[in-house]
Amino acid sequence: MFWVTFVVLMDQLSKMLIERFLTIPTFVVPGILWFTYTKNTGIAFGMFARSGWIVWVTFFATLFLALVPKFVKCSTLTKAGLQMIVGGAIGNVIDRFRLGYVVDFINLRYFPAVFNVADLFITIGGILVLVSLLRGEQPLDNKGEQE
Prior knowledge:
Blueprint: H1 2-21, E1 26-29, E2 33-40, H2 53-71, H3 76-99, E3 102-108, E4 114-115, H4 117-135
Antiparallel strand pairs: 1-2, 2-3, 3-4
């Protein structure tokens, strides 16, 4: 559960700082990266904006992913990836329940959407799960050893 906790804390802390201190777009790396405070009422890339049901779909999908390692044997890499995905989803669900939208602020010049730390970890987690599956990593037994 380390990654879940770490991702939620980093996500919520970064959003709190952005909401409190960012008033205008701020260049971090000129021409490539800047912080732009954005309210995202949809999901990825703003799809399904203002759809109240999306909060519940996200909540139940997060709950499902959190329970996967309890019922399915997974490798260490898969577990870490799933924890990152769940942590990122929880961070965004907290925003949806608390604010009614998700705070996005990371703006890459050549990427089509503004995103946040939770989205970043969801992506990294997905890549880790995919790499684990492609490498055919063996699941761990109850003692933490590969079968």
